[in-house]
Amino acid sequence: MDTLFNWHKNHHEKQLFGRYIHSDSIADLLENLPSKFEIKQLGFSVEKRPIYSVTIGTGKTKILLWSQMHGNESTTTKAVFDLFKIFQGDELLPEIQKILSSCTLCFVPILNPDGASAFTRINANKVDLNRDAQLRSQPESTLLWDLYQEFKPDYCFNLHGQRTIFGFEKTATSSVLSFLAPSADESRGVTLSRKRSMDVIAHIYKELQPYLPEQIGRYDDGFNLNCTGDTFQANGTPTLLFEAGHYPEDYDREETRRYVFMALVAGLHGICNEVTLKEEVYWSIPEHQKCFCDILFTNTASGDIKIQYLEKLTNGKIVFIPQFSENKMTSSRFGHRVIDVYGQEIKNILTENVIGKVDISQINLDNGITITL
Ligand SMILES: [Zn+2]
Question: Are residues 263 and 154 both part of a single domain?
Fold first, then answer.
């Protein structure tokens, strides 16, 4: 893992940076992939953007991986292109060589290019593709289903990103990566395919734990057949949900990207080596909670005040607009940034009509607290 960590520091795909990753950002990267990659245009999104698959490897174990099913969750896409980069090296690391000789990997780097372009979770018809697995009402959902039927994967990696609100109450740490072996039915029992997913996740957890102590979490396993992972798992295909989360001070998610990359390699390696671990290792991964906000003002005259950024696409850039966080979303006890204001008055702006109207440029955090409207 150290070798991968260091490789990534120097050699990751530098053309991709930050949060706004869309079809145009990856077009020439796809075009310039060498011939050992097979690029296929699978079809089109609602707004007629092409959706591609990239296949590489010569092994018998087939793995289907898709990213940006939610358009604004781009961290895993960057990590996928980092993988493409390491696959292109002249002298492949032995673990990378092993992956390519044992597996055939089929990636869909951006499944929801319209959402990616608009920086939204949903597609152009305002449908959450990860709740459309049964209906398959959208072209993107049909396309993934058809690819799944045709490719017949032995494993699926469902690659997502999560908000900054997730963390661990017990250790007051952020959930940088989280995983789920989705349930295959209402009973949430451990089916054969679910156990295989658990094995691979447990292996990733063991490999990554030294780099991210107390920062790797497990998603709750409530069953919902409308979710793609649950559908594939119910169908008997071991499926892993990856969630790229918030690393302290890393709103561009460039640190998280590195850990996603390492987790992908660890996961693929676990599959190649057919790792089997006790189910308890999986269950020992702590379930995370919604316990963080972006900025926590403490000791104000009104008690704690929580600020959550609204991530908004403005003139081709993602801007982070601070908003007063209402409690309904998160019981946040922790802040990624904590500012003690020693009882200064900022309560007078906490009225309904100012919520969401404060601009970061108008919050002077260093020279006392002044929030102007
Ligand atoms: Zn997602």
Answer: yes
Q: What is the pLDDT of residues 235-270, one digit of tens each?
A: 999 999 999 999 998 999 999 999 999 999 999 999
Domain count for the chain, please give it.
2
Q: Which structural domain, as residue segments, surrounds residue 327?
A: 291-371
Would the pTM of this model clear 0.85, i.e. be above it?
Answer: yes
Q: What is the DSSP annotation of 99-120?
A: HHHHEEEEEES-S-HHHHHHT-
Clarify whether residues 8 and 31 are in a common domain.
yes
Give the C-alpha distances (Å, rounded to integers) separating 365 from 9, 295, 299, 302, 368: 32, 11, 15, 18, 6
Q: How far is the CA of 241 from the centre of ligand 1 (A)?
A: 9
How many angstroms does the Cα of residue 125 sit away from the middle of ligand 1? 17
Distance 341 CA to ligand 1 centre (A): 35
Indicate if the pLDDT at residue 273 is higher than 70: yes
Amino acid type, 141 = S
**Is residue 88 located within the same domain as residue 235?**
yes
